[in-house]
């Protein structure tokens, strides 16, 4: 089976490459702003599902779509669009705990699976000048919650409970197990 990553996320691409999957990247054009939902798990499920609907599957293909959000104090934080929004998000999270939610949809002509993962992240309490400087790097703007745990955003993280890779954007352990059920394996596995 041929794996298709239907995502423009460089982090999801890197994670699948890290565990030696061969795949094609296909970006989907889904307007995420049209999906309004107050529950983070329901939101990421709906978005991952909708992204999967935007892809036409061939008989020999398995398509993977995903979405990630940050949940804090009843609010859902997606990707910041402006400097002010990024500073506001990181200031809210500063010194506090939040949850990172990811849903992954894996589908073929015969099977369709939707999985979710939540990871709890606690931030250190850092000076405002650190937040401002980090935002100035440009790193926050394509990441849910405005930080990358795999980049300089790691300096905010005091501890996590759960799957590190989920915070990056793909709960790798669950994804690998699920892909195995679709007969999709890393490139070093002989079919």
TrEMBL record:
Gene Ontology MF: a single term: nucleoside triphosphate diphosphatase activity
Catalytic activity: UTP + H2O = UMP + diphosphate + H(+); dTTP + H2O = dTMP + diphosphate + H(+)
Protein name: dTTP/UTP pyrophosphatase
GO-annotated biological processes: nucleotide metabolic process
InterPro entries recorded: ITPase-like_fam, Maf-like
Required cofactor(s): a divalent metal cation
Any one cellular-component term (Gene Ontology): cytoplasm
Enzyme Commission no: 3.6.1.9
Source organism superkingdom: Bacteria
Tagged with keyword Hydrolase: yes
Residues at the site labelled Important for substrate specificity: 11, 68, 150
Source organism: Aquibacillus salsiterrae
């Amino acid at each position: 089976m041929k794996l298709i990553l239907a995502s423009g996320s460089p982090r999801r691409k890197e994670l699948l490459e890290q565990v030696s999957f061969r795949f094609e990247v296909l970006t989907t054009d889904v307007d995420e702003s049209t999906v309004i939902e107050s529950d983070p798990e329901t939101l990421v499920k709906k978005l991952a599902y909708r992204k999967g609907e935007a892809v036409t599957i061939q008989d020999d293909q398995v398509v993977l779509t995903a979405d990630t959000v940050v949940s804090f104090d009843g609010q859902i934080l997606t990707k910041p669009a402006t400097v002010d929004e990024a500073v506001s998000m990181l200031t809210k999270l500063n010194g506090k705990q939040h949850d990172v939610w990811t849903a992954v949809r894996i589908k073929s002509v015969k099977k369709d699976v939707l999985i979710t993962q939540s990871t709890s992240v606690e931030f250190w309490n850092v000076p405002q000048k650190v937040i401002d400087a980090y935002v100035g790097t440009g790193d926050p703007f394509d990441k849910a919650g405005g930080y990358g745990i795999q980049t300089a955003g790691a300096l905010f993280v005091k501890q996590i409970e759960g799957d590190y890779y989920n915070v990056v954007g793909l709960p790798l352990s669950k994804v690998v197990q699920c892909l195995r059920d679709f007969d999709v394996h890393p490139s070093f596995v002989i079919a």
